[in-house]
Amino acid sequence: MSLHAHVVADVGALHLDVRLHAAAGEVVAVLGPNGAGKTTLLRALAGLVPLSAGRVVLDGRVLEDPATASRRTAEDRDVGFVFQDHLLFPNLSVLDNVAFGLRCRGVRKGRAREIAAAWIGRVELASLAQARPGALSGGQAQRVALARALACSPALLLLDEPLAALDVQARQSMRRLLRRHLDAFGGPCVIVTHQPLEAIALADRLVIVEQGVVVQDGAAAEVARRPRSRWVARLVGLNLYRGTARDHTVALEGGGSLRTADAAGGEVFATVHPRAVALHPEAPRGSPRNAWRGTVAEIDLHGDHVRVHVEGPIPIVAEITPAGLADLSLSEGQPTWVSVKASAVDLFPR
Predict the structure, then answer these.
(1) Is the pLDDT of residue 286 over 80?
(2) Torsion angle in degrees (nearest 10) through CA of 280, 284, 289, 291
(3) What is the mean pLDDT of the chain?
(4) Which residue intervals of the chain are DSSP H helices?
(5) If you ran DSSP here, which 8-state letter would residue 256 be given?
(6) Which of 56, 70, 211, 250 could form a disulfide with 65 if both were Cys (CB 3.0 to 4.6 A apart)?
(7) Taking the CB of residue 274, how many other CB atoms lie within 10 A of it?
(8) Are residues 128 and 48 in the same domain?
(9) Positive/negative CA dihedral, 223, 225, 229, 230
(10) Do 173 and 256 lie in a common domain?
(11) CA–CA separation, 349 vs 72, rounded Å?
């Protein structure tokens, strides 16, 4: 049981052109900035947004192929969808909400309720079976939506921001429960999220979508170690540059250059961890390194560390301690010197 999809769709100003595959039992997380097309992708897979081109094949069955005018309805796709805003029926009890999909598939009422009751127990809401959605917390409503999607034993599971709008405690509890059910689910699962920690905790593979296209696809460790766009680099906390390497120098696309410890050639990405960036009140001296003068553009406090955004010939983010910030007496708009050791510049091919 696997998913092979090439989704080409137009919604307003968005042109979506995404290739996506997921094996049986594999969880794929789709991340990207707002407006990238993540939710549109899920809705297209579910049959709620028509394709203008491409093809969707699930478990060997063609769900949609505009080239042959083939298109199964959403009801005929064997897909479970957990919407971000739950979309529970306010006039039905929790039990009947979960049984609804089964009833739509022709399961008799008594049997549908038996299956629904079992799933309500699995998501730890048995005591609320007769409650209405209006009496539920956000986390409880999300559990009901998950139970409703899984009760029909779908071939494909789609989850749109499953942990959004939950408080910290509810999010942790829901993440554990979701992980348990995803481990037991035999089909492919596609999750849309904007939270990298959630994606890493839940998914086997990450797919990064920007402006309607895939910019990176791989295991979380690989995406974090070798980001291929500025958005991904910010997501994982790295400074990323594109450039052309020659021996121990990388000429950057935006201007400026970086010296590297390792020799390389051709088009490359260069990354620098913010912790490897040093700030100085005056031009640094000592061992050979990259150094330039810039201006503090922004200072962000993050618990036990501070991120300092420096504009200049090479824009960069440095991570320092609050004590270091005080010692340097840094403030926004103030000039500062930046240094990065050649050995702290990591390269990988474009």
Answers:
(1) no
(2) 60
(3) 91
(4) 38-46, 94-104, 109-122, 138-151, 168-184, 196-202, 220-225, 230-236, 322-328
(5) -
(6) 70
(7) 17
(8) yes
(9) positive
(10) no
(11) 42
pLDDT per residue as tens digits for the range 7-58: 999 999 999 999 999 999 999 999 999 899 999 999 999 999 999 999 999 9
pTM: 0.79
Residue 309 pairs in a beta bridge with 298, 317
Which pLDDT band, with edges at 50, 70 and 90, does 254 fall under?
confident
Alpha-carbon distance 222 to 28, whole Å?
14
- Select from 174, 208, 229 the last residue of a domain: 229
Containing structural domain, residue 82: 3-229
Reading across the β-sheet that carries 346-349, which strands appear in turn?
239-252, 257-272, 346-349
Q: What are 69-98's pLDDT values in tens digits?
A: 999 999 899 999 988 887 899 999 999 999
CB within 8 Å of 200: residues ≥ 6 apart = 206, 220
Residue that terminates a domain, selected from 229, 262, 293? 229
